[in-house]
Here is the input.
Amino acid sequence: MIRGTGIVKTFKQRGSVLAGREVKALRGVDFSIEKGGAVSFIGESGCGKTTLGRIIAGLETYDSGEIVIDGTAMSALKPRARQPYFRRIQLIHQDPYSALNPTRTIHQTLHAPLALRAKQTRRPGSWIDTRAAELLSLVGLDPGYVLPRYPHQLSGGMRQRVVIARALTVDPEMLVADEATSMIDVSLRLGILSLLKDLRERLGVSVLFITHDVATARYIGGDGDMYVIYRGQIVERGKVETIISSPVHPYTQSLLSAIPVLHGLERPGEQRVVPTEALDESKSDDGCLFARRCPFSTDRCTSEIPLLARSGGFAQEHSCFYPERRNVVATPLEAA
Ligand SMILES: Nc1ncnc2c1ncn2[C@@H]1O[C@H](COP(=O)(O)OP(=O)(O)O)[C@@H](O)[C@H]1O
Ligand code: SF4
Ligand SMILES: [Mg+2]
Here is the structure.
């Protein structure tokens, strides 16, 4: 349904100290998301996940590259003509507090986009309230309770469900959930995740799940694809289960090695990978972007650029000259 090739995005820093400094948020990223499919972007903070998610939702410009939606290249259209395409892709922010207008009741919040939708689809005005109630029920809320209330009268989890209901008012084909549970109480997270999973199954919407947390990526998109992003580049891509159970790129391995082990319940992976130094964006970028931190780097890694491809007989694509399966993930201890 949506495909991107060679997406590049550079930000110019503002502010007195860093003014003019360039940040390479995305360095030529390719992606493709099928109708009804699930894709997870995973990587540490600052790697470019949000920027890519916003570009996919049509909320951010990019310097070069192409996005094709349902066979139509966005570069061929004027910005206004792109809007109907991007309207099918709705972004769910990580912060349900700032996403909702605090001065409007939930009824008012849902009424505006539904009124527009009624007009577009030539439905009577009476449809609006019926649909608002329907959408709230669909996301697991009691319309009678929620509709007259203001955002501050709801819990974080309820607010995030309202945000999802609002996204559904336009009948989207894809939801982009950017760290959608990170600001919600831990006890409510699973509910939001299973809701997204449920919407995928019931409505056939595709879900792009952006997270720094491997466990959530696995839960939501178990049957889908995972993209591991490092400093604005995809370093490993394949089926979620393949990447989590047999990662071959040292960066992915370091990411998975950092998952805390449940002491007494799990045995740590025996070949865990720990970066040799901290990330420092000010140092040179020659060769592999992970080279300075990679325990396995050689001279080749700092002079040649490894490209994302399928090689070495592995099921997934990776961008490493020396891909190797390593046992980094913790496994449950056998019952004694
Ligand atoms: N509006 C912006 N202006 C300047 N720099 C930005 C802006 N948005 C993002 N960046 C920079 O781009 C990089 C990627 O950011 P982001 O996409 O938010 O990463 P992530 O979501 O993976 O944490 C970071 O270095 C960030 O500081
Ligand atoms: S290409 Fe070299 S530096 Fe980069 S991840 Fe592979 S081994 Fe490490
Ligand atoms: Mg982000």
Notes: The pocket of magnesium ion (ligand 3) is lined by residues 49-50, 179 (CB under 6 Å). The CA atoms of residues 3 and 231 lie 21 Å apart.
